[in-house]
Amino acid sequence: MTTLAGIVSCLDGYDPEALHVEVARAAIAACLEPVVEEERVPVAAALGRVLARDLVSAVNVPAHDNSAMDGWAVRAADLAADGETALVEAGVALAGRPFAGEVKPGECVRVMTGAVMPRGADTVVIQEVVRRERGKILVPPGQKAGQNVRRAGEDLRAGAPALTAGTRIGAAELGLAASVGVPEVLVRRRLRVAFLSTGDELTGVGEPLPEGGVYDSNRYTLRGMLAPLGVELDDLGVVRDDPQALAQALSRAAERADAIISTGGVSVGEADFVRALMARLGEVLFWKIAMRPGRPMAFGRIAAGRRPFFFGLPGNPVAVMVTFHQFVRGALLRLAGCASDGAPPLLEAEAATAIRKLPGRTEYQRGIVFRDGGRLKVRTTGTQGSGVLRSMVEANCYIVLEHERGAVQAGEPVRVQLLAAFS
Ligand code: AMP
Ligand code: MG
Description:
Bound molecules: adenosine monophosphate, magnesium ion
Oligomer: single chain
Number of strands: 26
Strand content: 25-35%
């Protein structure tokens, strides 16, 4: 069987002791095997699911040429180029109530938005420019043939894919599926993700905090980041820094989960027992990623059960969010069958102040992007400690400072990634 180590060692620049973020992303991507099982669900239940097959439209959308405006449907050939044209109103067409006859030369039909274009007419004149006089409709010159008409199939052609396999179904996709009249869609089965916190110091919310105790916040952050991905969640709770307990938790989770996420236990001192454990249960790679925050990370696969992928994130609360957003989220979307890893775009903003940065690692600083005189600017939230979760609450973006980059002067362009785009 191909080992993960075998797969990733072939990648350019693969150095587990100082892994470039792009290489880490490529390494994970090279190992993933998406779920393949499919199921049929009603459109209304398809939100957040991943389309398993192309959704081909059986109909044109819109189904008929129709009016884009309220006004009168006319024959362009009737209209005088240099003066008003007087037309006789032959009837009315409303959305869902077509005009039964045909528009003959010298005639027009009152139309409302969405009304099927009456036979014979090819152009809509908006009501605001039309005058009525002695029972006639007077159309001013300067109308363009074909104006204000939505063509059949303009949105979607019959026979063409309305949505392609691998699309993550959001609000627009849901509406588009409904707009072609499809009652059910074929989607990949939901990904099952188990998650846990490790650490002897961790205390559950609602319990008194012993000396040296820390409330376990990472499981809540993880739940919040996982929920919008539409995956099935399995909260395994807190596991003590004890190989036996962790082995049990992982083995049990492997029976059901496609992916397991842990936090903590991957720093230099702690990694050893996870390493020994995973050597028994499957395979794990330990990486020191050239990034801040989030340097240590483990990636592996358990050999038993569903053979879930394992993401061992650092324990620091900010590092958990950054590593999840930058590596795990995209990997889970791919595992779920998405054609894209859904990475939010990098936008450009101007640094409002100087930003400290050393070359040789990618930094994800917490920033606040704002508009200033028509320009997008960004400042940091101040303290950037990887334990300061408040910085994530205050931030609305990551300031992504590239690997090679050094200190940033005020006024320089930097890249930002909006946090809202990670939902
Ligand atoms: P570790 O990576 O396990 O050495 O943890 C690094 C830091 O993150 C330590 O200060 C831990 O107390 C803290 N930490 C680890 N896990 C959690 C958690 N689940 N919730 C809050 N803080 C944590
Ligand atoms: Mg720990």
